[in-house]
Design a protein that fits this description.
By secondary structure, this protein is an alpha+beta fold. It contains 18 helices and 13 strands. The protein has 3 domains: 4-162, Roll (Archaeosine Trna-guanine Transglycosylase, Chain: A, domain 4); 229-388, Restriction Endonuclease (3-Layer(aba) Sandwich), CATH 3.40.91; 403-481, Arc Repressor Mutant, subunit A, CATH 1.10.10.
C-alpha cells in the first residue's frame, strides 16, 4: 500500500554517490553524521569529495566514467534533485577489516574507504531506500552543510522505488553481513557497456537488462516500439486491396521478420522484398529453417480462382524442381477460394492463410521477440487439415503462444507479490503453486512439476525474469523476482 510523507530537507552527498543511488547500483551512502533510521530527505548531488584522494583512486574503475560525468554536469548556480530517500539503517564502522568486502558491494575503492576512515575515525554507512521524484526539483546551490533546507516542503510518495522491496531486502542483508556480490563478472560487463550504450541501441538495451538482472533497477526503461510495427500493421489492409505487388513485398518481409531466410539470389525463387519474382517467379520461397513456398493473392472483394493454386504448382516445379515436393506450401489470400480452387489446394496440401492471421503472427513476434518458435509452428503447416481450414491451425498456434506468455507473466507476478507481501527473500515451488491456485481464474491448470519446469525456464540467465537458488530436489529449489514480463495486446 502506497504512502506519502513530507520532505523539507536534502542530504548533501557527492554527485557520483547520488547517481549511484539513483541507478540502483548502491543502496548505501557515507554521510558525515549518524542518521536516525526512519528519517526521510531528498538527495542533493553536491560538488564535494569525501576525502582528498583523486577520483581515480577513490571510485572503482568500473564506476569511474559515471563519477567523472556526474561531476562535469554540475552547475555552479543550481542543483537538480531527482530523488528522495528513507534511512533504513545506519551502521558505524571503525575498523579496516571489512572495508575490502564493503568496496565490492559499493562504488568506492578499498583505498578510498581506508582514507575516509583515517580522516574521520568513523564511517557512518547509511542504508537508503531510494525513490524517484515525479519531476526533478531545481534549487539554488547551497555552499555547505550536511542537510540543506528545501525552498518548500515536498509531499512525496513511495510509488516509484528504484528497486523493489524484496531486492532491497536481499541487498541490505548482504551489506550488513559484508557478503560478496553474486555476479561480479556481470558488473564488469555492465561497466564495459557504459560508453558503448550511449551510441548503440542494442548495447543500451543489454546494459538495461544487466542492471535489471543485478537488482540495480526495478524495471527496464521505456523502450520505443519495434519500428517494423508500422508496416506490419498494414499487412491486412494491403492484403484486402488490389495492390498485389505491395502485398507480396509485405509477405516476404513478414517471413524474414519471423526468422525465415533464403540465400538464393535468383529473383524467381527468393525472399528479397526489394526483388520480387515478377510474373514468372514464385511470390516467396524460404530455405531455412525449413522450406516454404507460396503464392500471394491480394483481393479487394472477388473470390480466388483455381488459377492461384495452379500457378503455385506450375512455378514451384519450374523453379524448384524436385525440391518443390519437400516444401510446405502456402497461399496468402484475403478472398474466399472458389470450389475448384479449394479442391486443388486441399489435394495438393496447400495451407490457405489470411492476411489478418499473418499480421497477427508477425505482430506477436515484434512485441514478444522470443515467442515464436518456427519449429513448433512447422507441424501446424505440414499436417491436415489443408485449404482454408489451415488458417484456424495457425490462429490456434498464436492463441497457444499467448496463453503460455500469460502463464509465465502470472508466475512472475506471483513470485514478486509473494516476496513483497511476506518480506522473505525467496519462495519454494510448493508455496508458489499454492499461490497460483489462490487466483480463482488461473490462466491454465498446472501440475507442480510443470510449474517447476516453467520457473526454471524463467530463471535461465538467457531470460532473467527470476533468480533461482538450486536445491537438492524439486521441493528444495527456491526462486526470487528479477524483472517483469509485460504483455501487449
Amino acid at each position: 500500500m502506497s504512502y506519502s510523507v513530507f520532505v523539507d530537507t536534502a542530504l548533501q552527498l557527492p554527485a557520483p554517490d547520488v547517481e549511484a543511488l539513483i541507478e540502483g547500483r548502491v543502496i548505501a551512502a557515507m554521510p558525515r553524521m549518524f542518521i536516525e533510521p526512519g528519517r526521510s530527505f531528498a538527495l542533493y548531488p553536491a560538488n564535494i569529495s569525501i576525502n582528498l584522494l583523486p577520483h581515480e583512486q577513490y571510485y572503482r574503475s568500473s564506476f569511474l566514467p559515471i563519477a567523472k560525468t556526474s561531476f562535469s554536469q554540475l552547475s555552479s548556480e543550481t542543483v537538480l534533485i531527482k530523488a528522495w530517500a528513507k534511512c533504513e539503517w545506519c551502521q558505524i564502522l571503525n575498523d579496516s577489516e571489512s572495508l575490502e568486502a564493503l568496496s565490492q558491494l559499493t562504488v568506492w575503492t578499498t583505498d578510498g574507504l581506508q582514507q575516509t576512515l583515517l580522516q574521520r575515525r568513523y564511517i557512518f554507512l547509511t542504508h537508503l531506500r531510494v525513490y524517484l521524484l515525479p519531476q526533478p526539483l531545481e534549487i539554488p546551490v547551497h555552499p555547505s552543510g550536511n542537510f540543506v533546507s528545501l525552498p518548500k516542503s515536498l509531499n512525496v510518495t513511495d510509488a516509484t522505488p528504484v528497486v523493489s522491496e524484496s531486492i532491497f531486502a536481499k541487498r541490505r542483508h548482504k551489506l550488513k553481513k559484508f557478503e560478496p556480490p553474486d555476479y561480479p563478472e556481470l558488473e564488469e560487463l555492465q561497466s564495459a557497456l557504459v560508453y558503448l550504450s550511449t551510441t548503440n541501441p542494442k548495447a543500451k538495451q543489454l546494459d538495461a537488462e544487466i542492471k535489471m538482472f543485478l537488482g540495480w533497477s526495478e524495471k527496464l526503461p521505456t523502450t520505443q516500439p519495434d519500428p517494423d510495427l508500422a508496416w506490419i500493421s498494414a499487412i491486412a489492409q494491403i492484403g484486402n486491396s488490389s495492390d498485389g505487388n505491395t502485398f507480396e513485398k509485405l509477405v516476404r518481409k513478414s517471413f524474414i521478420k519471423l526468422g525465415f531466410a533464403n540465400s538464393n539470389n535468383k529473383p524467381e525463387a527468393s525472399l528479397n522484398p526489394e526483388s520480387t519474382g515478377g510474373a514468372g517467379g514464385l511470390d516467396f520461397y524460404c530455405e531455412t529453417p525449413y522450406q516454404v513456398v507460396g503464392e500471394c493473392k491480394a483481393t479487394k472483394s472477388e473470390t480466388v480462382a483455381d488459377g492461384t493454386p495452379a500457378q503455385l504448382i506450375k512455378l514451384g516445379h519450374k523453379h524448384l524442381q524436385e525440391q518443390y515436393n519437400c516444401c510446405i506450401k502456402i497461399i496468402m489470400a484475403a478472398g474466399q477460394l472458389n470450389r475448384h480452387a479449394k479442391l486443388t489446394a486441399i489435394a495438393n496440401h496447400m495451407n490457405v492463410i489470411r492476411p489478418e492471421t499473418l499480421q497477427r503472427l508477425v505482430e506477436l513476434k515484434a512485441k514478444q521477440p522470443g515467442s515464436i518458435d518456427l519449429l513448433q509452428l512447422k507441424p501446424c503447416l505440414e499436417q491436415q487439415p489443408f485449404g482454408e481450414e489451415a488458417d484456424a491451425k495457425v490462429n490456434r498456434y498464436i492463441d497457444d503462444v499467448r496463453e503460455k506468455l500469460k502463464v509465465r507473466s502470472q508466475l512472475i507476478k506471483i513470485v514478486k507479490n509473494r516476496l513483497e507481501i511476506t518480506g522473505v527473500e525467496n519462495a519454494g515451488v510448493e508455496t508458489l503453486h499454492g499461490a497460483y491456485y489462490a487466483n480463482p481464474n488461473p490462466p491454465q491448470p498446472l501440475k507442480l512439476e510443470e510449474m517447476h519446469e516453467i520457473l526454471i525456464e524463467l530463471s535461465s540467465p538467457l531470460t532473467g525474469y527470476l533468480g533461482r537458488i538450486k536445491g537438492e530436489n524439486l521441493g528444495r529449489d527456491r526462486f526470487y523476482f528479477l524483472r517483469d514480463l509485460s504483455l501487449e495486446d
